[in-house]
Write a structure and sequence with these properties.
Strand order of the largest sheet: 7-6-5-4-8
Strand content: 25-35%
Oligomer: single chain
Mean pLDDT: 87
Shape: globular
Length: 194
């Protein structure tokens, strides 16, 4: 997962603020086109693996001044601070050991063994190589450098092992039986196995 110079600069500004608040940085992602850019900062409380709404708001306010002073983005942008959620992105080497036994899907660039995508159960990390077992039991070794995007697959096991979300700071909780859209993630079609 190669970083651009701008990615590295944004991370250098954001990471110390996140750490000062006792949180772990999960992802910094600048997306969109000039004039409609979004800077997504995804973080988690190491005790819970999530952020409350109040923590998101505090982190957003804490990032305002350092980002304004450094002014790393040439055009206007929208700052979005969020928790990683249950089917979280896998962005750090430690994620591959933390989530052993859970299913993941990923986009590969460049391809590995002629695969542009892979899905399977995380078996661990061997140095800088992700160990994955496909649904048919075949082992895969995927270099971290080739994993463009990765996320956990929402399964019953993952839900059962996840801590309930903390609604602190929410004005109203609306429960629905309809599937929720998660606009923070790439559509699942991008990760389907080839």
């Amino acid at each position: 997962m190669a970083q651009t110079d701008l990615d590295a600069r944004l991370t250098a500004i954001i990471a110390p603020v996140v750490a000062t608040m006792g949180l772990d940085l999960v992802r910094v992602l600048l997306s969109g086109q000039p004039g409609s850019l979004t800077l997504q900062v995804m973080a988690e409380d190491p005790a819970t693996g999530q952020l409350t709404i109040d923590q998101c708001a505090k982190l957003s306010r804490a990032l305002d001044q350092p980002l304004d002073e450094a002014d790393p983005i040439a055009s206007e942008y929208h700052l979005e601070v969020s928790s990683p959620g249950i089917d979280r992105p896998l962005t750090r080497p430690d994620d591959w050991t933390r989530w052993v036994g859970h299913e993941a899907k990923m986009a590969l660039e460049p391809k590995v063994d002629d695969r542009a995508r892979a899905t399977g159960t995380i078996a661990g990390l061997d140095g800088d190589v992700v160990l994955l077992t496909t649904k048919v039991g075949a082992p895969l070794r995927l270099p971290l450098a080739n994993i463009k995007q990765a996320k956990l697959v929402l399964t019953d096991r993952l839900i059962a092992e996840s801590k309930p979300l903390d609604p602190t700071g929410a004005d109203e909780i609306i429960e629905s039986s309809a599937p929720a859209d998660n606009d923070n993630d790439t559509p699942d079609t991008e990760f389907s196995e080839d």
